Design the sequence.
């Protein structure tokens, strides 16, 4: 036998043995599964993906089976489509994405069952009661933009704005603060879930690149310094007018406080808080005493879908010293839900109305967000405070704007819920919650029916089923988007690093952001 | 000349002789190297002393860290270096790692320089190892640079030893190795190009060699002009994988020497006359001469190592390790040997904590320098890079939330370093936040050194059950503040709060009294003396007695000692102190010098001269 032929023979033998081994492993892996004994309860799993409603276009819900065993087998199936089977030597169940997508595509409006089998050390299989989830007909917007940071106290050094493709596991950095001197990017906003217009607030960090509002429209980046002599602080929480021609923003003087015995250490308060509008056409800032009163703290702007009303939160200012932390009055800070009419064409302000009073609820109302169809208003309520994320008592509530009724959403938990966002079809609510451990903010998605019923939420799926067991960074400020952001992070960073921030013009209509000045209240 | 050069690339003349002679020298040298690094430097000091510093790399098992590390040029070398640095935790394993890296560097240098020179490079190839030795003596950890240099020299070895025929084959191999190297070790590719270029020039392939050198020079200029916008030398150094913040002139000079050694040595080898093969005959005489030369070189290296070793820094690192490991008596013994200029705030904190743990804080606090009243007992508004130390003291005091706060600041500044994760896990267990603790333990389980401990904890905690409270956690829980408040706490308020929650919190009491002493608040000391009954002191601790006598002297009032008495010995020392002070009259400088000898360990002295 020639040397060449000998090599070919050896290669064939090795390949045959390898194939036999693989087959043996695969076949042997589930041997005896037909004789499995039934366990009369569903298996424990992490994350908890049992009894949830999921969109048909979501990434595989990879999970860990929290039951002791030597081998794990999961069969995911519905009445339609081909079942997906996963065999694992560890508790980690990573579902193949292609088969998963095919299954979900064929199971819209149907139930999907997860049959979990675990082989014990003695070699026999146990089959747990099936886990049933529901595949909704309503798709979710494919992209989620969020901020990833450490659990932050006073200092910040590393943070990034990221974009996650919810249909898979691609999670890319849009902007890393290392690219602009470890600065801060504190809020981002998009009109009607569209990536075509972006507002992003940035602050300088170790290097002084200044602070202000970045407006990104049709790929062009504009740096705007919204400070005026009446409102000398940079913009805080932004909200796009649905027309894309104005941005409402708050101007906050935030102080942090720290509890010495409570489970959640952090707390915060706005010592001063006003609101204003930035008009893109004229490049000017306008306001009125109704949203910028020295006697009140106004914050969290949100536009109605038609753009005729500006919703926001307002609390009476309980202190006169705007530099000292009012520790003793911290728990008295409770916000009302307000709204005011505004005509962008004429620049006229309407009447100020109280939508829901904290006197009525006994709780502080924050972060209003109106569904795209204008029917529902989702908001947070906590015992007190401007910052629901630091309040374990913070829950999500839903108000039917047609009748004015409101109720606690079923997707709330005993820990803080906050920073919610509607999908463009109004059927999904993405929000932050600390429900897993009381400390780390993660993103959940809850399906909201036409009548406003929120279903059990599911956690943002990850490629690594153990991801949340060791990943301690926070997923903050989730915003659903219909498409990917069109601007590269380096372009944004270059814009931030470039010298100068364009000063906004002084008010051309309305009043100054601080009432009490001569022009106020017009 | 040209023909011999080609031959040299494949067959190194004298190689057999070299192999026969060099191992003994290498064995002796690296044996001593290992002993020096293991015993004198002690890599564990680098691990414990610099774990919270940018000078020490983080490393994590798992796909995420791997992918992040390998996503950029020089990532592989940094990844390998970060892993090897974790092994410093074990004194002798760390020493062995450093020695092996130095040996690989020397061996590859020897082959390359020998190939260029056409013979043995004598002892020149030990140069990088000597420089590494001196750098480790300054506690600068050049592991990433050393690995990058190793990679460059190994690639150069492969190039000079490869049996290549023709320029096309040479250029192909050169480019292939350069591609791999530029990804694995970034700027080290420049060194590789220069060394290969010099080799080819020496071997008679001048055009090829000059092209390599010119390409390297051009790349360096481009990087200097367009990318880093720095000087040529600066750029060359900065293109190498980083090895932390270079501090001190000696370290900077040694680093430059290490970076420049290879091109300079290669050039030197190329320019000198061809080395002849060792002549035969009278070998014993040659051997003796070689032995004498070797001994002289070793003596010179030993002298340099001795002279350049940073004793003070070594002591500081040892103190940090003892503080971390709770070896309080050894810490206090080490501090007594510490040069004054190394006694900084963190050492001061460690000393006070050690004194507390050994039960000597109210007795011997002023035996040790107390730097200043603001910082002596972590009273800084901004503790800066010592958040972790601050957090540790707060946790021992029972101020769990404040300890958590400080640990999170450390997390933000230092990243997911093992001791930070461990602290946060313990804090969350102490707060009975098991799920949050599990996340930090999950992150820690990816650590090479502490992962086992973390996995053990996770196993003990079970799927959802609580972590069994260790004695330390039970003690912290018993001391924790029970009544929630939101306030911009001063340290004094915090200690008061702790004592209100548990009046038997001895650490809080002693730190509060120390706070009064450091700030000269005599009335505070006298006022809180009745709390002594909550503890098992026999009599009044010495420094409190001294404060009582000062209080009575300054105010003219009699302190209420609640039935206790100031000892006769303290009264006698106070009388002596007063007499000496009076004797020196207005000349406070002379009085201070005189009293420092006799009363430097008393609160009298601190109150009179330091406060």
Sequence:
């Amino acid at each position: 036998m020639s040397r060449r032929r000998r090599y070919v023979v050896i290669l064939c033998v090795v390949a045959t043995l390898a194939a036999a081994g693989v087959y043996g492993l695969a076949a042997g892996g589930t041997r005896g599964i037909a004789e499995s004994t039934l366990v009369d309860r569903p298996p424990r799993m992490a994350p908890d993906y049992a009894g949830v409603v999921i969109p048909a276009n979501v990434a595989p819900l990879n999970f860990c089976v929290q039951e002791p065993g030597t081998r794990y087998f999961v069969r995911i199936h519905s009445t339609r489509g081909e079942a997906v089977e996963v065999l694992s030597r560890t508790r980690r169940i990573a579902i193949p994405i292609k088969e998963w997508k095919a299954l979900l595509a064929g199971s819209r409006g149907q139930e999907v069952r997860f049959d979990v089998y675990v082989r014990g050390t003695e070699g026999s299989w146990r089959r747990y009661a099936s886990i049933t989830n529901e595949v909704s007909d309503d798709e979710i917007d494919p992209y989620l933009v969020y901020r990833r940071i450490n659990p932050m106290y006073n200092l910040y050094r590393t943070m990034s704005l990221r974009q996650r493709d919810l249909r898979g596991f691609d999670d890319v950095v849009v902007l890393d603060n290392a690219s602009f001197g470890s600065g801060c990017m504190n809020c981002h906003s998009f009109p009607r879930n569209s990536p075509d217009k972006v507002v992003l607030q940035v602050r300088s960090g170790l290097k002084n690149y200044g602070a202000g509002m970045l407006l990104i429209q049709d790929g062009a980046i504009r740096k705007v310094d919204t400070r005026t002599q009446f409102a000398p602080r940079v913009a805080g929480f932004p909200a796009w007018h649905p027309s894309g021609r104005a941005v409402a923003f708050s101007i906050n003087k935030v102080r942090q406080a720290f509890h010495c015995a409570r489970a959640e250490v952090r707390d915060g308060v706005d010592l001063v808080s006003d609101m204003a509008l930035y008009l893109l056409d004229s490049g000017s800032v306008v306001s009125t005493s109704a949203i910028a009163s020295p006697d009140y703290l106004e914050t969290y702007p949100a536009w109605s879908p038609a753009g005729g009303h500006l919703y926001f939160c307002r609390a009476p200012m309980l202190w006169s010293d705007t530099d000292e932390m009012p520790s003793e009055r911290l728990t008295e800070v409770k916000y009302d839900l307000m709204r005011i009419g505004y005509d962008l064409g004429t620049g006229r302000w309407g009447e100020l109305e109280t939508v829901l009073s904290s006197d009525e609820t006994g709780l502080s109302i924050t972060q209003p967000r109106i569904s795209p169809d204008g029917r529902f208003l989702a908001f947070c309520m906590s015992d007190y405070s401007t910052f629901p994320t630091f309040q374990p008592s913070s829950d999500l509530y839903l108000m039917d704007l047609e009748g004015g009724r409101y109720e606690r959403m079923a997707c709330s938990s005993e820990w803080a819920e906050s920073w919610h966002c509607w999908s463009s079809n109004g059927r999904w609510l993405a929000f932050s919650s600390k429900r897993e451990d009381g400390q780390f903010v993660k993103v959940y998605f809850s399906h909201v029916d036409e009548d406003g019923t929120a279903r059990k939420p599911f956690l943002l799926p990850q490629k690594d089923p153990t991801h949340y067991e060791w990943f301690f960074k926070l997923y903050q400020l989730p915003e659903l988007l219909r498409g990917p952001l069109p601007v590269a992070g380096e372009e944004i960073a270059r814009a931030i690093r470039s010298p100068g921030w364009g000063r906004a013009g002084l008010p051309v209509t309305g009043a100054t952001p601080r009432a009490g000045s001569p022009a106020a209240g017009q | 000349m040209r023909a011999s050069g080609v031959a040299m690339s494949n067959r190194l003349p004298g190689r057999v002789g070299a192999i026969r002679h060099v191992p003994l020298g290498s064995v002796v040298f690296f044996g001593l190297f290992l002993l020096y690094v293991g015993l004198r430097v002690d890599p564990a000091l680098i691990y414990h002393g610099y774990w919270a510093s940018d000078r020490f790399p983080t490393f994590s098992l798992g796909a995420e860290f791997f992918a992040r590390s390998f996503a950029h040029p020089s990532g592989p070398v940094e990844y390998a270096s970060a892993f090897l640095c974790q092994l410093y935790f074990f004194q002798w394993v760390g020493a062995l790692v450093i020695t092996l890296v130095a040996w690989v560097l020397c061996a590859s240098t020897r082959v390359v320089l020998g190939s260029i020179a056409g013979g043995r490079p004598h002892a020149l190839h030990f140069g990088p190892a000597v420089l590494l030795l001196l750098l480790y003596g300054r506690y600068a950890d050049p592991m990433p640079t050393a690995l990058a240099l190793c990679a460059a020299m190994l690639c150069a070895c492969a190039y000079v030893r490869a049996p290549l025929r023709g320029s096309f084959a040479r250029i192909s191999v050169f480019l292939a190795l350069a591609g791999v190297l530029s990804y694995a070790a970034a700027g080290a590719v420049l060194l590789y190009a220069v060394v290969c270029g010099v080799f080819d020039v020496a071997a008679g392939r001048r055009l090829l060699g000059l092209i390599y050198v010119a390409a390297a020079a051009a790349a360096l200029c481009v990087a200097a002009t367009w990318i880093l916008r720095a000087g040529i030398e600066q750029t060359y150094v900065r293109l190498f994988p980083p090895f932390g913040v270079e501090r001190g002139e000696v370290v900077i000079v040694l680093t430059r020497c290490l970076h420049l050694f290879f091109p300079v040595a290669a050039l030197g080898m190329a320019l000198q006359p061809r080395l002849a093969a060792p002549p035969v005959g009278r070998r014993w005489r040659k051997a003796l001469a070689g032995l004498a030369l070797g001994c002289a070189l070793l003596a010179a290296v030993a002298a340099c190592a001795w002279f350049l070793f940073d004793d003070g820094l070594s002591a500081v690192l040892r103190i940090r390790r003892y503080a971390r490991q709770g070896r309080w008596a050894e810490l206090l013994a080490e501090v007594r040997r510490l040069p004054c200029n190394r006694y900084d705030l963190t050492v001061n904190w460690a000393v006070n904590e050690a004194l507390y743990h050994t039960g000597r804080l109210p007795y011997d606090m002023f035996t040790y320098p107390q730097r200043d009243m603001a910082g002596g007992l972590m009273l800084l508004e901004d503790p800066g890079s010592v958040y972790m130390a601050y957090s540790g003291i707060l946790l021992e005091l029972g101020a769990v939330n404040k300890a958590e706060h400080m640990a999170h600041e450390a997390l933000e500044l230092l990243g997911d370093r093992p001791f930070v994760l461990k602290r946060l896990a313990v804090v969350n267990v102490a707060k009975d936040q098991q799920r949050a603790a599990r996340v930090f333990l999950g992150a820690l389980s990816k650590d090479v050194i502490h992962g086992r401990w973390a996995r053990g904890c996770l196993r003990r905690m079970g799927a959802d059950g609580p972590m069994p409270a260790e004695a330390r956690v039970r003690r912290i829980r018993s001391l924790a503040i029970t009544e929630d408040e939101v306030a911009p706490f001063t340290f004094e308020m915090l200690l008061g709060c702790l004592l209100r929650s548990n009046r038997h919190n001895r650490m809080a009491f002693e730190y509060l009294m120390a706070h009064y002493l450091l700030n000269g608040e005599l009335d505070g000391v006298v006022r809180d003396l009745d709390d002594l009954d909550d503890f098992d002191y026999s009599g009044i601790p010495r420094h409190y007695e001294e404060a009582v006598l000062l209080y009575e002297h300054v105010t003219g009032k009699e302190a209420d000692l609640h039935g206790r008495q100031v000892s006769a010995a303290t009264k006698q020392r106070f009388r002596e102190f007063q007499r000496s002070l009076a004797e020196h009259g207005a000349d406070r400088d002379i009085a201070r010098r005189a009293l420092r000898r006799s009363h430097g360990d008393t609160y009298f002295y601190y109150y009179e001269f330091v406060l």
Observations:
- The longest strand of chain A covers residues 266-279.
- Chain A touches chain B at residues 44, 66, 150-158, 257-263, 265, 267, 325, 327, 330, 436-440, 464, 466, 468-472 (CB under 8 Å).
